[in-house]
Specification:
The chain is an all-alpha fold and 282 residues long. It contains ten helices and two strands, in the order H-H-E-H-H-H-H-E-H-H-H-H. The chain folds into two domains: 5-27 and 70-195, no CATH class; 203-281, no CATH class. A two-stranded antiparallel sheet has the order 1-2. Keywords: Membrane, Transmembrane, Transmembrane helix.
Length: 282
C-alpha cells in the first residue's frame, strides 16, 4: 500500500465525523423552512419588531436574498447531477469494499486491514451523503450538502494524490495498483461534480426596493439575475471568485457604470438588515 495510507484514512474519517456532527447540530431546521435564504439572526429582528418601535421600517422582503429564477429548471438539472454523483459514490464504495475484502483475504498485516477499513468507511459516508443529497430540493439543505461533499471530496483528492506520488518501499501487485487508480479516478470525478455544483438557483430582487427612481433612470444594464453571485455560486466559484466575472465584464461592455448597474448584495448585507440588527442589539 502507499506510504501514509493509514494516516490519510484516519484524517478522512475525522473529517467525516466532523461533517456528521455539523449536520446533527443543524438538524433543528425543518425541511423547507428556509425556502429562501433569510437572515441568520431573524429572532433578533423579530424582537425589534415586537418592541413597537415607530422607526422600525424593515419589511420581510428586505431580509431575503432574492426570488429564484427558473427554479424548476434548476432543480431538474440538479437532480441529474446528484444522481450521477450518487452513482459514482456507489461505485467508489464498492471498489473500497472489494479492496478491503482483498486485504483481509490476503492475510495482510493489521495495519493494512485497518487502513483499508477506514478508507472504506469514508467512502460509505460519502455514499450516504450522496443518497440524502438527492432527496433535497430546497435552498438551505442543498447548499449544505453541496459544501460538505465538495469539502470532503477535495480533501480526499488532495491527500490521496499526495500519497500516490510519494515513493513507497512496498511493491504493489498489478490488480491492487489498477484498483487503487480506479478509486483515485472516481474520487477526482466526485470532486469535480460536487465542487462545481451551484448552491442554489440564480436570484432576482426588485431594484426599486434598493435604489431611487433617479438612480435607476441612469442605469444601463438590467439583468434578470441581479443579485450577487455569491448567493448561488458553486464551492469552486466561491474559492476562485468566479462570480465576480460579471462585474469585471461590465467595465468592458457597459456604456456607463452606475451603482444601479452593480449586483445587489445579499439580504444580510443590506442597509435595512444591518440597521435592524443594530437596533435589536441595543
Amino acid at each position: 500500500m502507499p506510504a501514509y495510507q493509514l494516516a490519510v484514512g484516519i484524517v478522512l474519517c475525522c473529517c467525516a465525523l466532523f461533517s456528521a456532527f455539523v449536520f446533527i447540530s443543524e438538524g433543528h431546521y425543518k425541511e423547507g423552512e428556509l425556502r429562501l435564504p433569510i437572515h441568520d439572526d431573524d429572532d433578533e429582528l423579530d424582537g425589534a419588531a415586537k418592541a413597537g418601535d415607530p422607526f422600525d421600517i424593515t419589511e420581510p422582503e428586505d431580509l431575503i436574498n432574492g426570488y429564484p429564477i427558473r427554479e424548476e429548471e434548476f432543480w431538474a438539472k440538479m437532480r441529474v447531477r446528484k444522481f450521477v454523483l450518487a452513482c459514482i459514490a456507489a461505485v467508489l464504495a464498492i471498489m473500497q469494499t472489494i479492496m478491503l475484502g482483498w486485504t483481509v483475504a490476503a492475510d495482510d498485516s493489521l495495519k493494512e486491514i485497518t487502513s483499508a477499513a477506514v478508507h472504506t468507511a469514508f467512502a460509505l459516508y460519502i455514499l450516504v451523503l450522496s443518497v440524502f443529497y438527492m432527496g433535497h430540493s430546497d435552498f438551505f439543505w442543498h447548499g449544505r450538502f453541496t459544501v460538505h461533499l465538495a469539502t470532503l471530496t477535495t480533501t480526499a483528492v488532495i491527500l490521496i494524490v499526495a500519497i500516490t506520488l510519494l515513493p513507497s518501499e512496498l511493491v504493489w501487485e498489478v490488480p491492487q495498483r489498477i484498483a487503487w487508480y480506479i478509486s483515485l479516478s472516481l474520487w477526482v470525478a466526485a470532486f469535480w461534480i460536487s465542487s462545481r455544483t451551484k448552491r442554489g438557483p440564480a436570484l432576482h430582487f426588485p431594484s426599486e426596493r434598493i435604489y431611487s427612481e433617479k438612480t435607476l433612470s441612469v442605469a444601463t444594464t438590467f439583468p434578470e439575475n441581479n443579485v450577487c453571485g455569491i448567493t448561488d455560486a458553486s464551492p469552486w466559484g466561491v474559492v476562485m471568485f468566479s462570480y465576480t466575472t460579471a462585474v469585471v465584464m461590465l467595465g468592458y461592455t457597459a456604456k456607463s457604470l452606475e451603482i444601479a448597474d452593480l449586483p445587489i448584495v445579499p439580504g444580510s448585507m443590506r442597509a435595512m438588515s444591518l440597521y435592524t440588527r443594530m437596533k435589536a442589539a441595543t
